[in-house]
Design brief:
about 30% helix, single chain, alpha+beta, globular, five-stranded antiparallel β-sheet, PPM-type_phosphatase-like_dom
Length: about 260
């Protein structure tokens, strides 16, 4: 699909690819993502990483992202309503709650325990004037403003031990949720699961790595065909440059707003 260049608009390219370790073990990709453009140039996006130790982690991830975005799409979200901080916080909280309930209901329907569908979850809402994100577990959400400032809206929550994290189905998970709102002229947003965080996060200073994000932001901004751009993103995520540094499943959602 060719992307219109006539009016101010979001361009979004997103992909989830199976990590080399999962391919080797003939396992499915446990990651999932979903996004939607709402009226008034409002972008809602979600990414999730199903727990490798959970028998239905992939199902949990899919249910979580789809429910989170459906929950937001059914709200009457406008750029005016997003001007109120409490409204934004409530929208994100309600989408987390909806996703958690949906995963628990799916577990019951499958005659499984909720932890068998354990998954992380990141949700973002963005307009040209603001961006907000919430997160349970690892992965991260970032945004760039019109001045080129790159901000980590959320950062990995790895618990006390490496590779340990909180899941949507964990006891007290909602109490651990990160949430951040940034009011600026937003140019880019990005969501990624933990497979990419070693490449995307400068661990020394705990800040997003500009050399990772900026070329991707430019790539999405200049994309002319959405299907072709997604194919290129999949190739990038599957490239030796990436797989030499991580063997985990990878999800990346990149949005670029063309203010014209």
């Amino acid at each position: 699909m060719k992307i219109s260049k006539q009016n101010p608009h979001w361009q979004v390219v997103a992909a989830s690819v199976c990590g080399t370790s999962h391919i080797k073990n003939k396992q499915l990709c446990q990651d999932a993502h979903h996004w939607q453009l709402l009226p008034g140039n409002v972008l809602v996006a979600a990414a999730a990483d199903g727990a490798g130790s959970a028998s239905l982690g992939k199902v949990g991830a899919m249910v979580a992202v789809e429910t989170a975005i459906e929950s937001l799409s059914l709200k009457d979200i406008t750029r005016d309503s997003l001007a109120d901080d409490e409204t934004v916080q409530l929208l994100l909280t309600e989408s987390l709650l909806a996703a958690k309930k949906a995963v628990e209901d799916e577990a019951a329907a499958c005659q499984q325990q909720p932890q068998d569908l354990a998954t992380t979850l990141i949700i973002a809402i963005a307009s040209p004037e603001m961006v907000a994100a919430t997160q349970i577990g690892d992965g991260m959400a970032v945004a760039k403003d019109h001045l080129g400032n790159l901000l980590a809206l959320t950062i990995p929550n790895n618990g006390e031990y490496i590779n340990e994290t909180t899941f949507l189905t964990s006891p007290g998970a909602l109490d651990t949720a990160q949430m951040r709102l940034w009011r600026e002229t937003i140019v880019n947003v990005g969501l990624l699961t933990d497979g990419l965080q070693m490449l995307a996060l400068n661990m020394v200073v705990g800040e997003p790595h500009k050399p990772f994000f900026f070329p991707l932001f430019d790539f999405v901004k200049n994309a002319e065909d959405q299907a072709e751009a997604k194919e290129q993103l999949v190739k990038f995520l599957s490239s030796e440059r990436i797989t030499q540094r991580t063997d985990d499943d990878l999800t990346l959602i990149i949005g670029a707003f063309n203010h014209l």
